[in-house]
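Exercise 3.2. Students should predict the tertiary structure of the chain below and write it as structure tokens, then compare their answer with the key that follows.

Predict this chain's 3D structure.
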Amino acid sequence: MVLVRRAGVEDAPHVARFVDALLIELSGSPSAYPTRLATANYLLTLHDRIFGFLALEQGEPIGAMMMSESAAVYARGMFGVITELYIVPERRSTGVAKQLIDAGASLGRQRSWNRIEVGAPHQPAWERSVIFYLRAGFIEVGPRLRLLL
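Answer key:
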């Protein structure tokens, strides 16, 4: 049985490890775990606008999701953004990611969010990710771009 709970600062090593694995998988970049650990530790202290969730099976972490709270006129106010979502490969396609999203949606309803958004890699190699989000009820609205500051 999988338990999903809010992640606290004490869970930063697990969150950082999963985000590190996610970024290595997405881009093939070398591990930057120490930097990610420091960042996860800091972000998990911002519990009023950054939200982490951890999925555990028999007490062992098997996945994590990070979300931030944002606001926009087009969204009619506050909304959530999934910034990272990672499930260990051997537990994918078993409903764990959906449980994490459901936990985030529950939090969003408590915080009166109008929606949750996520950026998913839209490349043939990541088609399964897009299909997963569509099956979870997300609507595809186009690509996202970024400007590094």
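Discussion points: The beta strands are 2-7, 50-57, 60-72, 77-87, 116-118. The first helix runs from residue 12 to 27.
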